[in-house]
Amino acid sequence: FGLAASYTDSSDDEVSPREKQQTNSKGSSNFCVKNIKQAEFGRREIEIAEQDMSALISLRKRAQGEKPLAGAKIVGCTHITAQTAVSGCLFGGLGWDINRALPSPANSKDAPVLSGVAVFAWKGESEDDFWWCIDRCVNVDGWQANMILDDGGDLTHWVYKKYPSVFKKIRGIVEESVTGVHRLYQLSKAGKLCVPAMNVNDSVTKQKFDNLYCCRESILDGLKRTTDVMFGGKQVVVCGYGEVGKGCCAALKALGAIVYVTEIDPICALQACMDGFRVVKLSEVIRQVDVVITCTGNKNVVTREHLDRMKNSCIVCNMGHSNTEIDVTSLRTPELTWERVRSQVDHVIWPDGKRVVLLAEGRLLNLSCSTVPTFVLSITATTQALALIELYNAPEGRYKQDVYLLPKKMDEYVASLHLPSFDAHLTELTDDQAKYLGLNKNGPFKPNYY
């Protein structure tokens, strides 16, 4: 990244983690992180996260005797945080062989180091580092993954591209992102999906909670930490009114921002209108807005043409997918100057002196510049765990080479595990009420399409 751009500050010339020789307390060097000496700090971070992830701990206790993931060898590509470290501990408690796991995109945190899991990730990875980390987790002598846990589809893509023979032993793929799920459906439609896959993103306990409630809080957190912006009266355009966009818009509106929405889907656009937002094309408002936020899962949503037309000091950030939504590559040109303001904040300066404030170089704002609410990640991690258990233990023939939603009963189980945190007491149907509704008293209560 950034070879064509000129920076006014000196770049960090630290030795790449790939060049360092590090060993952990057990003498293993089978990992690659920025600084293994932060392991104790990481452990304390994990302990803090565990306090708001009681449902995961409860699931681990309930399933510990059965070891439903005994023999599972999971390779994963997800964000490395204290919260994902807690979920890694959960999988280990369920019997997972944790010899290999979890490379991460460039927005990983530095600190968490999970004992027993081979982690290849550090904050500030380049694109080349990212793919190197994935390769180190897939291409391992004497160890063969039999499950894939993916977030964005990059790991699945890499295996298809470089190591297709690995799929002979893979029992299933669990995918948790909009973009990754879209890629799986494309493979399935083309007849190229050679193992069953579980679409976790569209499970209720992922979409309604992680995508909506998480982003409703973390969008403000990320923007405040990086820019100290005041939202009252600011004009903001949110690109995409899916669950992520809905969460962002709700938070910004509550603080007095004037919010515009862009949409391709007439249903989502109508929802935005009914929620009180003006639906526009980005080109119609790009000259006047103070903040641009992408939440689409697509690529090149904000183009160089848009960036050229933005007003001075406009803040641009991504809450959607990877680093593709904002065309950052188009800004890596000699006529533009890049000025590093602080960590994850760059001024991109045009020849006439106009500055655009770019956050996290177009990567995910809430994972690069802030933290994600622990409780919401507990919900997602529990859903992932049940999806892994379901695919790994499914009898031969139950799942074909296609993409499946998590059974609704499991979604409801995930939710029920989290209710004790609120001292919430569920009402139980009487036999007569259950008969009237045509439901089992114990669920599932919603149809599969909900």
Strand content: 5-15%
The strands making up the biggest β-sheet line up spatially as 1-11-12-13-10-9-6-7-8
Q: How would you describe the shape? A: globular
Report the CATH superfamily of the largest domain.
Adenosylhomocysteinase-like
CATH topology of the largest domain: Rossmann fold
Keywords: NAD, One-carbon metabolism
InterPro entries: Adenosylhomocyst_ase-like_sf, Adenosylhomocysteinase-like, Ado_hCys_hydrolase_NAD-bd, NAD(P)-bd_dom_sf, S-Ado-L-homoCys_hydrolase_CS
Family: Belongs to the adenosylhomocysteinase family.
Cofactor: NAD(+)
What can you tell me about this protein's structure?
Keywords: NAD, One-carbon metabolism. Residues 211-372 form the S-adenosyl-L-homocysteine hydrolase NAD binding domain. The protein has helices spanning 39-50, 54-63, 82-93, 127-138, 154-162, 178-189, 204-227, 243-254, 266-274, 282-285, 304-309, 365-368, 374-393, 408-418, 431-437, and strands at residues 6-7, 74-77, 147-150, 172-175, 197-199, 235-239, 258-262, 278-279, 291-294, 314-318, 337-342, 345-349, 355-359, 403-405. It is built from 15 helices and 14 strands. Mean pLDDT is 88; it is low at 1-12 and 98-115. Helix 1 packs across helix 3 (82-93). It has 450 residues and is an alpha/beta fold. It is globular and about 65 Å long.
